[in-house]
Protein 1
Amino acid sequence: MAGIPDIDAHKIYLGPELPKLDMSASTVKPSSKGPAPFDGTLAVTGPTFLGFHAPLAKGVLNVGAPGLGGFVPKVPTRAVDIEGDVDITGKGPIALKVTGFTKTIGSVEINGGLQVNGHASWLSSIVATTKLFSVDHPNIDNYRLNHGCLEGPEHAIYVRGRVSVDGIIELPDYWQNFVDKESITVTLTPIGAFQELFVDRIEYGKRVYIRNQAGGKIDAYYQVHAERIDVNKVVVEGVKGDDNDLYVGDKIENDQDQEDDGDAQYRTTDI
C-alpha cells in the first residue's frame, strides 16, 4: 500500500460516495463566493479510532491513551485535552461515565439529583436548604428512615455522657485549641431522683465540675456544647448572592446603619 505523507485540503470527507452522508454540510455550507469558509474541516461518517484504546471499541469516537506512532504528549497519559466549552446531550441512561479520580477547578451547578455511592469528602463548607440522612428502615421492610439535622446559628460540637460520684466531666483533649472556651455550655439531666445540680466551674477546655447544692449524690446525664474556632463564624443573615454571605465580615455595631447602608452586608448573632 502506498503511503501519503501529507494531505493538503480545505476539507476531507470520509464516507460513502452515494448517498453522500456529509453531516457537516449544513454547518459549513459553500457560498456563492466559493467553497466553505472553514479550512481544515473533517467529516467522517463511520467510527473513528485514535490512540492506543481497548481492542473492543465501544463508541463512534474511540480515543485511547498515547503510545502509537512514537508521540508522547506533555502529560504522558492524557488522551484528550480540550480548551473550550463542552456540551453533552445524553441518548442513553448514562450520559457521562468517568472511571477514576476526577478533579474540577471552579464551580459546579447540578440541576437535578446527585447520588454518591461511596465516601464523599469536602475541604470547605456544605451549604443546603436542609440536611438529613435516609437509610433502610431497621424494622419495616421496604421502608426508609429519614432524620433531619438539628441546626443553629453557629458551628458547634458536643460531647455527652454520664457524670457521677466525683462530679467531674472530662472534656476531650483536642478541645484545648479547637473550641471557644467562653462558649462552653452544659446541660444536666438528673437520674433516679431530683438533684440540685449546678456547674461549679469550668477548667477551660479540660473539665467541668458539677456540684449538688444539697450535698447529696451526683448522678446525671450531660451534654456539653461549644463553638469551633478553626472556622469562621456563621453569618446568620447575609446579603443574598454575596460570595461571602456564609461567613462573618466586620461585625456591624449599629443595626440602623445596616438598614440604610448598601455596603453593610452582615449581621451576626452573638452566642
Protein 2
Amino acid sequence: MSVHQKEDNRKVTTHRLCEMKQRGEKISMLTSYDYTMASMVDAAGMDVILVGDSASNVMAGNLTTLPITLDQMIYHGKSVVKAVKRALVVVDMPFGTYQAGEIEAVQNAIKIMKITHADALKLEGGVEILDAVRRILDAGIPIMGHLGLMPQSINKYGTYNVRAKEDVEAEKLINDAHALEDAGCFALVLEKIPATLATRVAQELKIPVIGIGAGGGVDGQALVCNDMLGMTNGFSPRFLRRYADLNGVITSAVKNYIADVKSCDFPNEQEQY
C-alpha cells in the first residue's frame, strides 16, 4: 500500500479552516486584486485569498484604504473569484459600507456576495459593529473579523504603530475577539499587535486566528502579495518577508524591451509574420 499522500485540491471552506486549526495546520493567506495574480496565487496552493481594501493603496495609489468604494471592491472581487478554483476568497467591506447601521450593512454585504460570488466578507471592528455583524450573519454570509491595527480607523489612530501594547487596549481586544466569535464569525485577523497577546487570543478562541505582524503563535499568516513579492518600494515593516524582487525583475525586463525596440532588435525575423 502506498504511503504517498496526494495533494489536497478540494475547495477550501470556512469549515475546512476550522479543521486546519484543530489539527494544528497553519493557514496561509495572501491578498490578490486581479485575475492574473489570483490565478497564480491560487495555483500555488494558497488557502485563503483576501481581496483587501489595501487595493486602495496598491492598485489605486491612495495613501489610505478609506477612498476605495463599494463598486471598486466589487470589481476587484469579481475579477479574483473568476480566477480561483481552490482558495477561500474573502472580500473586504470598504469603509463606510457597514458603520452607518445594520440595514445598510446587510444590503451592501448582499450586493458584494451576489455580484462577486465571493465566499466570505471581512469587517474591521469589535463590539461597535456587532449589530451589523449579526445582521449580515443572519443573512447567511460568513464573516472574518479584524482587530488590532485597523487601517480604516487610521485617522483616529494617527499612526501605523503597533496596537494594544497597553493593558486597557489589550483587554478590549480580547473582549472584542470573544464577542466576534460568540456572534458567529468563522475566523479573525489580528494586525500588528504584540505576539504574546496574539498567541493568547489564538489559544482562547476556537475559530482560526490569522496574523499580519502578530507573531508566530497564531493559526495562520497573511501578507499583501505585492509586498512579499517585492513589487513595492519604501515599505519595510518588521513583519514583512520578501520572497522575490519583482520590482527589480520587471524594471530590468522593461529596460531591455526599450533597448531592443530602440536598436531595432525587436521584433526579429522569427517574431513577425
